[in-house]
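User: Hi! Is it possible to get a structure for several chains at once, not just one? Here's what I have:
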Amino acid sequence: MGYKAALRVWRGDAGTGELADYQVEVNEGEVVLDILHRLQATQASDLAIRWNCKAGKCGSCSMEINGRPRLACMTRMSVFTPDETLTITPLRTFPVIRDLVTDVSFNYAKAREIPSFTPDPAVKPGEFRMQQVDVNRSQEFRKCIECFLCQNTCHVIRDHPENEHPFAGPRFLMRIAELEMHPADTADRREIAQDDFGLGYCNITKCCTEVCPEHIKITDNALIPMKERVVGRKYDPLVWLGDKITRRTPKDTPKVPGKA
Amino acid sequence: MSDIDRFSYDVVVVGAGGSGLRAAIEARLNGKKTAIISKSLFGKAHTVMAEGGCAAAMGNVNPNDNWQVHFRDTMRGGKFLNNWRMAELHAKEAPDRVWELEAWGAVFDRTKDGKISQRNFGGHEYPRLAHVGDRTGLEMIRSLQQKVVAMQQADAAEFGDPEAMIKVYAETTITELLMEDSHPARIAGAFGYFRDTGRFVVFEAPAVVLATGGIGKTYKVTSNSWEYTGDGHALALRAGAKLLNMEFVQLHPTGMVWPPSVRGLLVTESVRGDGGVLRNSEDKRFMFNYVPDVFRAQYAETEEEADRWYDDPDHNRRPPELLPRDEVARSINSEIKAGRGSPHGGVFLDIASRRSADYILQRLPSMYHQFKELADVDITKEPMEIGPTAHYVMGGVEVDPDTGAASVPGLFAVGEVSGGMHGSNRLGGNSLSDLLVFGRRAGLGAAEYVSGLSSRPVVTDADMTADAETALQPLERAEGESPYAIHGELQVIMNDLVGLIRRESELKTALVELDKLRSRVAQVSAPGGRAYNPGWHLALDLRNMLEVAECVAQAALERQESRGGHTREDYPAMSPEWRKVNLICSLDADGDVTLKQQPMMPMRTDLLELFDVSELRKYMTDEELAGLPGAEVAEEKH
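Assistant: Yes, the chains can be modeled jointly so their relative placement is included. Here is the combined structure:
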């Protein structure tokens, strides 16, 4: 059942590059990453690919296959017909390092701006008591393997690098939701979710959910509920009036300043 | 050396999996300026692939559990070859490390009363594994990653720079350790390259913690990721340290066998812990035929008793599917060899007929996903096909149990790259807890070592120049074999000749074949530039894999008994005499692997007394047991 697949693989670096044509053998049950490895081993030993577990657990081999953001290790060749040409390109949102490898440091910078888990200091290790039903929501978001396919596909930054400053992207808005929904967390990130991480830029087109290899319902379970919480904090007239009358200092947790 | 980047740290941790991150966190908490070196991006290390859980005797599910029971289980699992001090520290400290991780943000599955849930696993007497579905490793690495970030945020507030005290160097490979020109030689730093640019880098540091994981990529069928090329094992050897008991390689009983492209991919032991059973082509639960004498008292003899155990563990014995991994792997191998295997050369692992679809989806979501997407198999409806896969190396750098210090001053090792803790066979779930317990201890050990120094060691320019030249050779060679081809040959040799069942003649052949590969590895060619060139990276990793493979093969030839992750067809019995022997690999003056026997340190009496003498007798010699209460009486009966 083996056949030769036609591949067009983007080769190049930050400066320039082009699609290169290859013919690579395909066997039953193989995934795109197998084919790229065979290409490396037989025709292009210096082809740059980022990969790690080859089991869909580490989120390293993110790339665009026929224009769709995917994990190469979880994309079976059987989803394509043998006469189909596969065009394989690096993630478009991030700068290319070489070939199929991109510079995803943007994501690590954003991660560092989000106030970390903040438990009540009075609760000592071993004393946390939480019900399964209360941790289910955070656990769904913690399934995230940080493949950054959602970041790559989100139109807010995909074609608009100018939005990278005000917008953290679905992965990190979901991280904020995860902490906000953690039963033992005491910080309040609602204000910064909107003002510093750009939750308002999200117009719930669900592209992030669609490409998530972990099938996390990013939009429905993280982003929309987070929007509702922000409304409760920032735009509820009663909350606003209460703040005015009692002049209580809001206990909003500030964003962590990024590296200058 | 102007074309080499230079950085100065107190502690350099090589490896950013569970043990490396935990060590780095501890070093930083102790005020040391710490670098974390990672071959991958931050948060991608092999720890993410751990599925089942983290063993810790918290007693949340069964209050009878305590460190003594965990210690006993660990020693039995390792067939008493474990470094007992490590097993003791591990069993005592694991609960605190899990609770600490929860305080740092890990979100484990819960019991009804809101505590951390614990699940059953092979070889553990009580439900003991803290878990998050079947993605516990991901939870652990993400929690540690986020703890590092939290520390960086605090450092940003204090020093104005998040990376002032702890920094992650992602996609950076260390190729050599740098030694001070002194007697004895002390660690002075580490030499390597940035994968994205190919630029060389030197980390000057008096203490280096190796946390590089295992050696799985020397085998063809493995559950391990590309990073598992034995770097730390080889770096330690070349720095003059010793490797302990490298013959013990764990074959996980349940790896996928089909399709070929995912052969070896892990199927978590939780499938069996949660009710899954093994069947052969005759639909028989064959594990009942394979309970060895040393375990007979603890395992059920009938399917009825085994099935009752899940709901009433106090009055029934465990199903034999939950024997330690080495036993299960050998049994599967025997069934396949006897012609009772599955169509693709494995056996069947069935949970579909035993648990509801809802239960399976809640407890084993990644397994469902993995089989559905990669093999078109719905595990809620049909059995899986599985077979043994190289999973873990019990052998590793010989370290001081309390501090993780290797024999070379300034060198520390932790996690899979260290040896001793797991003896001849690791219990599932004992790895994640090992990473946390000894990660903390090695980080502390390194910090204290640095605090105690009166002078900082210096690296020499000559060493750096030599390391740079060595690293560049594969790129500069115009003609030469492909590293990919040689890697493939190495994997076949190890798989076929130094695999699950070993024989003297095959081990000798393996050593001859490995020796032939040596000159070829020294002549590989990796065309292309220095920027993100995987062919070049593999060429450099190959040297490490080959050195480690030689250690495994030599030790396997030397040890004339069968125990845990080392089965000799020509010496099928477990020998009390061999239990007293550790096998130590080191490099001689010519850089060749040499092997010597070293006596095992006798176990402390208070630890021996945790066992029945009748059980110890199965493992130990009479002299070792002399003087123990009950020893004489038992002898008379015998």
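Chain B has a mean pLDDT of 95. Chain B touches chain A through 71 residues (CB under 8 Å).

User: Great, thank you!
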